Amino acid sequence: MMAASPSAAGGFTISGLSVRKSEEIADLIDLFSKTQYRAKEVTPRVEMMEKRCLELFARDYKYSIISNSNGEVCGHYPRQIVFLEYESTEVDRDRFESTVQIAKLQDLVNRSKMARCRGRFVCPVILYNGKHICRSATLAGWGELYGRTGYNYIFSGGSDDTWTESEEVPEDEGAVRNGESQLFDKVRGHDIKLLRYLSVRYICDLMVENKKVKFGLNVTSSEKVDKAQRYADFTLLSVPYPGCEFFKDYKDKDYTAEGLVFNWNQDYVDAPLTIPVRFTQNLNIDWTQYQ
């Protein structure tokens, strides 16, 4: 016989059911921590999770969906990307009026995804007091940007609707640099339009380096070192935090964290902690000790 116990919500929870839920949550955490998500490789279990997530969102929010059924927008984002519009109650649940033009948002997403590493565009994930907290990848460097625009051009049959302006191939080095600048203006301009459409004002940069270098090439970059200062209208916070390379060590140690310490003295770690004084002056924290 299973005993019932009071829940935090004021009702009752069957202890056996509570244990099962805890096991399911633990199993889910274990799955997500060890399995890379790909929109094209969906299993019945993932489909069940997606459905459950939408049901949970619907309890508290009105939302729109950006379709990403086969990963055509981004292969690492969910097949149905949820855009939370506002918190809802039982009273207004059936009087939904969209606060965003989803077609315009989809267009901005398609145009801006080239600006960031692996096409991971700025995507709202939390709605707090009417403000969107978003996630994204870092800015794509010229190596990835040229590689991906060339890839898209080839596999679209020699045309790309997102980048329709035909340009002659520059012959001298100055023209090449000018062409690079124009390309960055274009793709990062679309990224900024999306940020503004989402009313983003603050950008928290977690990179531990100013630019990530692979095989001698600048692969990704940070808004804080954009030479043209395209992101100057936003408040930039540099909050260095170890990236996926460090957590690969965690995986290689069979997910055991004991003895794993990030070495902040490595040569490539050059991004300083930079937070505007107005955010920190009342916190009584010695930020010089931050690591």
Rg from alpha-carbon coordinates: 23 Å
Summarize the amount of helix as a percent range. Answer: 25-40%
Mean pLDDT across residues: 78
Number of strands: 11
Termini separation comes to 51 Å
Major sheet: arrangement of strands: 7-10-9
Uncertain parts: 1-12, 150-176
Question: Based on CA inertia axes, which overall geometry fits?
Answer: globular
Which structural class do the helices and strands define? alpha+beta
Total helical segments: 7
The major sheet is characterized as: 3 strands, antiparallel
Helix-strand topology string: EEHHEEHEEEHHEEEEHH
Give me the oligomer status: single chain
Report the β-strand fraction as a percent range: 15-25%
Could you walk me through the main structural features you see in this protein, from its secondary elements to its overall organization?
This is Myotubularin- protein 14. Helices cover 34% and strands 18% of the residues. The protein has 7 helices and 11 strands. A 3-stranded antiparallel β-sheet has the order 7-10-9. The chain has a two-stranded antiparallel ribbon with strand order 1-2. It has a two-stranded antiparallel ribbon with strand order 3-4. A hairpin with a 2-residue loop joins strand 5 and strand 6. Helix 3 packs antiparallel against helix 5 (173-197). The longest helix is centred in the middle third of the chain and has 25 residues, at 173-197. The radius of gyration is 23 Å and the shape is globular.
Keywords:
291 residues; three-stranded antiparallel beta sheet; two-stranded antiparallel ribbon; 7 helices
